[in-house]
Amino acid sequence: MAFLRFEDLRVFQLAEKLCDEIWSIVLPWRYFEKNTVGLQLVKAADSIGANIAEGAGRGTPKENKRFVRISRGSLNETKYWIRRAIRRSLINDEKGAFLREMIDELGPSLNAYLKSIGGKK
Predict the structure, then answer these.
(1) 85/45 Cα distance (integer angstroms)
(2) Number of neighbouring beta carbons within 10 Å of residue 67
(3) Residue 1 lies in a domain
(4) Which of 48, 90, 95, 98 could lock onto 15 through a cystine, CB 3.0 to 4.6 A?
């Protein structure tokens, strides 16, 4: 099997696309909104891809799987903060639906990536 750099993984690219979209949404918010919900949302979204990258660099399938599981937790945290932002009228319904579509694609991709990692089951 050929070695894939984490940057070439579709799941990583989806994670980057999501966190970049969230960044562009949060950037124009006022200070209070940005410093509370925005900061948490950006950190959670950034953590998805960061953990994919870190896991890929750990050198063992067991460690890689552990970090992909952390990525899944960060994805759920991102979903939570998006819900908060929508409820607090920081993200409109249209943009919220777009983000949910991205998450609905990323979640199964993370699961598939986790299953594809070798090592003990």
Answers:
(1) 14
(2) 18
(3) no
(4) 48
